[in-house]
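hey
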């Protein structure tokens, strides 16, 4: 469900961009991000680190896009956010007692320290590959950046999650959950 909520602003941006151009799309993106993450914050009184980064980057770069009528700010949002997330996951390997992946998924997985580090580093690699792919599109095929932002990033995320799931199942890391009637 969380992944779907994270992609709804991108879908709204995509539709607005294709029908009305970058300025309307930037405003639509900021409104969608404000509504979705505002609702999450009101319900849970917290946002994850990646969500805070998305909110900040959206409002800063979306605002610059609208104010300066220049889509380059939003074009570089995805690569910048992915690099920042990679650095946060990498830093968590060395700061604190647990890598960020363990903080996020520790309740659902049984992994030893080496496996948690491997999982955490796989997220670092995923974010860096995503940053490079998005940057490549912005630089060499800017006419497709909005399409790639929705379809390419979504496909990359699904592939990564499926591969990660296969690895976790293969090593027997997924904790069994009891059903309420058991």
């Amino acid at each position: 469900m969380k992944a779907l909520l994270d992609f709804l602003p991108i879908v709204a941006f995509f539709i607005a961009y294709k029908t009305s151009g970058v300025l309307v799309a930037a405003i639509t993106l900021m409104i969608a991000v404000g509504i979705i993450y505002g609702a999450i914050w009101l319900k849970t009184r917290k946002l994850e680190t990646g969500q805070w980064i998305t909110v900040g980057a959206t409002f800063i770069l979306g605002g610059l896009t609208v104010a300066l009528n220049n889509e380059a700010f939003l074009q570089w949002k995805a690569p910048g956010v992915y690099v920042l997330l990679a650095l946060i996951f990498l830093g968590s390997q060395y700061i604190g007692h647990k890598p960020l992946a363990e903080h996020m998924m520790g309740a659902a997985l049984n992994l030893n320290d080496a496996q948690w580090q491997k999982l955490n580093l796989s997220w670092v690699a995923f974010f860096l590959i995503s940053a490079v792919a998005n940057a490549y599109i912005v630089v060499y095929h800017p006419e497709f950046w909005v399409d790639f932002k929705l379809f390419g990033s979504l496909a990359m995320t699904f592939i990564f999650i499926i591969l990660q799931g296969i690895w976790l199942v293969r090593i027997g890391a997924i904790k069994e959950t009891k059903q309420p009637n058991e």
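The mean pLDDT is 91. The chain has two domains: 1-74, 76-174.
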